[in-house]
Amino acid sequence: MAAAGRAMSARAMLLASIPYMTARIFQIPYTYSFPVIPDRKFVRLYFYPLNYTNPNFVVSDSFFSVSIGPHTLLNNFNPLLTTQAITKEFSINISTNTLNLTFTPSSVKNKPFAFINGIEIVSTPQILPMPSTHFSWSGRRD
Ligand SMILES: *[C@@H]1O[C@H](CO)[C@@H](O)[C@H](O)[C@H]1NC(C)=O
Ligand SMILES: *[C@@H]1O[C@H](CO)[C@@H](O)[C@H](O)[C@H]1NC(C)=O
Ligand SMILES: *[C@@H]1O[C@H](CO)[C@@H](O)[C@H](O)[C@H]1NC(C)=O
């Protein structure tokens, strides 16, 4: 149970720096660089598809890609096409000390933008039990 406690505190720390109900909106590619200890990580991305305060940001216009280094996690993703609150989870073996998570708006719309509400990065050994939804970096369920 100590391991689960560590996972909870790691989660709380990351969510505190990127609050849930506030969206970060990107109109140009943006990269978060997280210092990490190299190992297999779960990366969870949280999306709340709302129309954010600026009327220019209509969520149905939001198509974007998310990648970690050369690995594409989401390609031309539109959060509205699924459900209301979305969690996307990926399992990625990180071999470097930096995890670069890049959001790239797609140019399919006149005013492309990307958004994110929360990012969570957890070392796999800290997760008890294993989550039921498990995506590899290619986006396939495995
Ligand atoms: C991650 O990659 C490293 C280097 O490629 C490898 O040695 C290690 O076994 C991998 N770990 C997992 C959990 O897949
Ligand atoms: C966002 O605004 C557009 C345009 O006003 C509207 O059609 C759409 O239903 C709104 N979507 C949400 C999730 O509120
Ligand atoms: C992450 O991005 C920084 C800044 O662009 C770069 O210096 C670093 O090499 C990148 N690391 C990885 C593992 O991609």
- Number-wise, the strands total 9
Question: Biggest sheet: strands side by side, in what order?
Answer: 2-7-4-5
Bound molecules: 2-acetamido-2-deoxy-beta-D-glucopyranose
Uncertain runs: 1-19, 130-142
Percentage of residues assigned to helices: 10-25%
Cα shape: elongated
| Category from helices, strands and their pairing | mainly beta
The run of helices and strands is: HEEEEEEEEE
Distance between the termini: 26 Å
Give the topology, please.
Layout: H1 2-17, E1 24-26, E2 30-35, E3 40-47, E4 64-68, E5 71-77, E6 86-93, E7 98-105, E8 114-116, E9 118-123
Antiparallel strand pairs: 1-8, 2-7, 3-6, 3-9, 4-5, 4-7
The structure holds 2-acetamido-2-deoxy-beta-D-glucopyranose (NAG) (3 copies).
Residues 40, 93, 95 line the site of one 2-acetamido-2-deoxy-beta-D-glucopyranose (NAG).
Structure overview:
The chain is mainly beta and 142 residues long. The protein has 1 helix and 9 strands. A 4-stranded antiparallel sheet has the order 2-7-4-5, with no helix packed on it. Strand 4 and strand 5 form a beta hairpin. It starts with a helix and ends in a 19-residue tail after the last strand. One 2-acetamido-2-deoxy-beta-D-glucopyranose binds next to strand 7. One 2-acetamido-2-deoxy-beta-D-glucopyranose (NAG) is lined by residues 40, 93, 95. Keywords: Kinase, Receptor, Signal, Transferase. GO terms for molecular function: transmembrane receptor protein tyrosine kinase activity. Residues 1-23 form the signal peptide.
